[in-house]
Design brief:
Blueprint: H1 5-20, H2 29-40, E1 46-51, E2 55-61, E3 64-74, H3 101-117, E4 122-130, H4 138-144, E5 155-162, E6 170-171, E7 175-178, E8 180-189, E9 193-194, H5 205-216, E10 229-238, E11 245-246, E12 249-258, H6 261-282, E13 285-294, E14 297-299, H7 301-314, E15 318-319, E16 340-347, H8 365-382
Parallel strand pairs: 3-4, 3-5, 5-16, 6-15
Antiparallel strand pairs: 1-2, 2-4, 6-16, 7-14, 8-12, 8-13, 9-11, 10-12
Helix pairs in contact: 1-3, 3-8, 5-6, 7-8
Protein name: Amidohydrolase
InterPro entries: Amidohydrolase, Bact_exopeptidase_dim_dom, Peptidase_M20, Peptidase_M20_dimer
Keywords: Hydrolase
């Protein structure tokens, strides 16, 4: 093992420090500062910060030409109160690291320690600490950043911890791993009226009542079919909570989900057509907005093969598990260009609270397992 007992103690303490100070997507100023300070001690050849917002990348150069291999972790936490009974629970009201990104960062920092002691023989190793994964904006912003042009990875690897799976077991597959998804907001504009004379206004209620079942009916197929699509109504708001006014405006929020980006485009167009038709029939104005946009995440077979070889070499149990998942991960953005990507799941224990539960805490035992696997992948590429 390339980590000492002292390393492990220090890394666990660092992970727990990160856990106490979560920051939301796009706000990761202090987290990025903490990461950069820790990376400096590993003597990278270059540190690129401000990537896609608050992203930080450390670059370690080999002596010979070779591929650029990147490993990615996420900086952000969630707007969820931390209810775990832990001495290192979140100190920030209403925010917590309930997706385990504190553990992902620590795994990369463990890898950084190993790289600092044994530099790559060839090529480049890049450790990317990415902002804003939770809202789907971070990876796209990093890839679009001029600073990322200097990195241009050939291969990119990442993992996500996954409660419900045996501790340390890996789920890996070629092809689709997580779904594309996007939040869709449909905003209707009509005209208010006195509640005794609703006919003098234009209410969104008939349009909303007609539209809701139509939107839900857009779902199709089941995973792993490429035709899989799913719509989930998440919020409906009509008018104000009063008795004397017939409403003149309303909103429908929903999440669109599909296995592939191409199926998402078709689903989006279908949903928009239904919304515009309902508005026109009711004499309403309509606007459509999107947020939390995630591309599909599809593993490249060559990249996944490298992970399999590393798993076998390290004696880590793996199978395809329940992949692909209905959930989304913005890591897929790194695979939309010339980079070959592989994302795998690392079991966090079968009895642990689920991701995004208010009492979820990343298991420290995964730090060494994830770092061993990343280090093996790195050495197989770069020596």
């Amino acid at each position: 093992m390339f980590l000492t007992n002292e390393d492990v103690v220090e890394l666990v303490a660092w992970r727990r420090k990160l856990h106490t100070l979560p920051e939301l997507s796009g706000e990761e100023v202090e987290t990025a500062r903490e990461v950069k300070a820790a990376l400096m001690a590993t003597r990278p050849d270059h540190i690129i910060d401000g990537l896609g917002g608050h992203g930080v990348a450390a670059v370690y150069e080999g002596a010979e030409l070779g591929p650029t291999v990147m490993f990615r972790a996420e900086l952000d936490g969630l707007a969820i109160e931390d209810t775990a009974d832990l001495p290192y629970r979140s100190q920030v009201p209403g925010k917590g690291h309930h997706c385990g990104h504190d553990g992902h960062m620590t795994t990369l920092m463990a890898l950084a320690r190993g790289v600092s002691r044994q530099r790559p023989r060839r090529g480049r190793a890049v450790l990317m600490f990415q902002p804003a994964e939770e809202n789907g904006a971070g990876a796209a912003a990093v890839v679009a950043d001029d600073g990322f042009v200097a990195i241009k990875p050939d291969f990119v690897f990442a993992y996500h911890n996954m409660p419900g799976m045996p501790l340390g077991k890996v789920a890996l597959t070629d092809g689709p791993v997580t779904c594309a998804s996007r939040g869709m907001k449909i905003i209707f504009a009509g005209r208010t009226a006195h509640a005794s004379m609703p006919e003098t206004g234009v209410s969104p209620i008939p349009a909303v009542l007609k539209l809701l079942p139509e939107l839900v009916s857009l779902g199709s197929g089941a995973l792993p079919s490429p035709d899989f699509a799913m719509t989930t109504i998440t919020h409906v708001e009509i008018g104000e909570p009063v008795f004397g006014i017939s409403p003149g405006d309303g909103e429908v929020w929903l999440t669109l989900r599909s296995l592939t980006d191409s199926r998402m485009e078709a689903l989006r167009l279908e949903a928009e057509q239904l919304a515009r038709k309902a508005a026109a029939e009711a004499g309403l104005g309509v606007e459509i907005e999107y947020d939390n946009v995630f591309a599909d995440c599809t593993n490249d077979p060559e990249a996944a093969a490298h992970v399999r070889r590393a798993l076998e070499a390290e004696g880590i149990a793996f199978d395809a598990g329940e992949l692909p998942l209905r959930g989304s991960e913005d890591f897929g953005r790194f695979g939309k260009g010339d980079s070959k990507i592989a994302l795998f799941l690392l079991g966090a224990g079968e009895s642990r609270p689920h991701l995004h539960n208010p009492d979820y805490d990343f298991p420290d035992d995964l730090i060494c397992i994830g770092a061993r696997l990343f280090n093996r992948i790195l050495r197989d590429f770069l020596g």
